[in-house]
Design goal:
This protein has 174 residues and is α+β, with helices and mostly antiparallel strands. The chain has a single domain, classed as Jelly Rolls (Sandwich), CATH 2.60.120.10. Helices cover 37% and strands 25% of the residues. It has helices at 6-9, 21-28, 42-49, 106-111, 132-141, 143-171, and strands at 15-17, 53-57, 62-64, 72-78, 81-86, 92-98, 103-104, 118-121, 125-131. It has a 5-stranded antiparallel beta sheet with strand order 1-2-9-4-7. Strands 3-8-5-6 form a 4-stranded antiparallel beta sheet, with no helix packed on it. The protein is globular. 28% of the residues are buried.
Length: 174
């Protein structure tokens, strides 16, 4: 087991939920087409699940705050999370609302920068969390599994960039 501890998440408002590896694998096996997890074998899912932990955020809980370190990312398995950012006028804007099957916190996790926005649970939310330490262990111990995961992750990031481009163009004026 490659357990994650609450202190590694730097947010004591998130509630750790004890969950056996088989249940975490079952959560991963749900239909998340953008991540292509359906391409993984049962053994792959259990391996991946052993590097994750389940955390819960009650409605209204700040999951992470803009400009804080991105030492973990999560797959939302139930609930909804609002991604918010202050605009130039210091107004709180909702950039997106994400639900089951979507990643949370992957940008800062992958690029090593701080969080670019704030995440708040819009509904009671459960997440499968992987810390940077657990991910590094997974990369070293199971590089072929990582190779299976990367295309889905890259596809997801590209889709988000495309959506952002469309929103940006829609807001531009000539």
């Amino acid at each position: 087991m490659h357990a994650t501890s609450r202190t590694q998440l730097e947010n004591r408002s998130l509630q750790h939920v004890e969950c056996p590896v088989q249940e975490r694998a079952a959560l991963l096996s749900r239909g998340y087409p953008s991540l292509r997890l359906h391409d993984l074998t049962r053994a792959d899912l259990e391996t991946l699940g052993s590097y994750t932990e389940v955390f819960r955020a009650e409605v209204g809980t700040m999951i992470f705050h803009e400009a804080t370190p991105g030492s973990w990312m999560a797959l939302v398995v139930s609930g909804e999370v609002e991604i918010r950012k202050l605009d130039a006028g210091r107004r709180d804007r909702i950039l997106a609302t994400i639900g089951p099957g979507h990643l949370l916190g992957e940008m800062a996790f992958l690029d090593g920068q701080t969080r670019s926005a704030t995440a708040i649970a819009a509904k009671d939310t459960s997440m499968l969390v992987v810390t940077r330490h657990a991910f590094e262990n997974l990369v070293h111990a199971h590089p072929t599994l990582i190779a299976k995961l990367l295309p889905g992750l890259i596809r997801l990031l590209i889709l988000r960039l495309r959506r952002t481009n469309v929103k940006l163009v829609d807001r531009m004026t000539d």
